[in-house]
Write a structure and sequence with these properties.
- The chain has about 190 residues and is mainly β.
- The protein has a single domain, classed as Immunoglobulin-like.
- It is about 10% helix and about 35% strand.
């Protein structure tokens, strides 16, 4: 029985010794800026001002400029006691816990007339949805009413209504947090196909 105990103890010690040694990570991020890029579904390259795309295939990625904070040492994963994960280490990325700040509102404007019911200086946010991390779509206005934390490094916005007045658009996104910070970003000019 003593021999089994010592074999087990040595095995545990070796597993602990050989497990991942992750550096300290900064758990959270602070949003301190914003950029916006247009994309076509199925493509990874950004759309430039000469692009023409169907509105159904167009989406905007809002990317947060951020500062990381709240350093902590990675916690030990007790699954390593039974199974050695040395070949499949998973160290967390900086900011992997998201932001502690909350989104108050996201307003989207266009430089051109979108349709007959919305003027140039009026928000067209109601025509956009947020694509969540599980792939579902939520109306942008409904999404921001929940005052979510930015939990990812970007936010994906999908246009769900075809413009009827002008086919050319440059979108201005005004991102406001509950702490009063406001950031603005513009997409490149885009032309939608008829």
């Amino acid at each position: 029985m003593k021999k089994v105990f010592w074999i087990f103890a040595v095995t545990m010690a070796l597993n602990i010794y050989s497990c991942c040694n992750c550096d300290e990570v900064k758990k959270y991020f602070d949003v301190n800026g914003l950029s916006a890029e247009g994309y076509k579904v199925g493509q990874t390259s950004k759309l430039d001002s000469t692009a023409k795309v169907n509105f159904e295939e167009y989406y905007i990625d809002l990317t947060f400029n951020k500062t990381y904070y709240s350093e902590c040492k990675q916690q030990f994963d007790f699954s390593n006691l039974l199974f050695n994960n040395a070949y499949a280490c998973k160290c967390a990325m900086d900011g992997s816990y998201g932001s502690t700040e909350k989104i108050d509102s996201i307003q989207i404007y266009t430089s051109y007339l979108f349709d007959s019911s919305v003027g140039v200086d009026e928000s067209i946010s109601k025509y956009f949805t947020v694509i969540t991390n599980v792939g579902s779509q939520v109306n942008l206005n409904e999404y921001t009413q929940t005052k979510p934390n930015p939990s990812f490094f970007y936010l994906r916005l999908k246009l769900n209504t075809k413009p009827t007045a002008s086919l050319k658009h440059q979108f201005t996104i005004v991102y406001k947090q509950t702490n009063g910070e406001t950031y603005t970003a513009k997409t490149p000019l885009i032309e939608f196909l008829k």
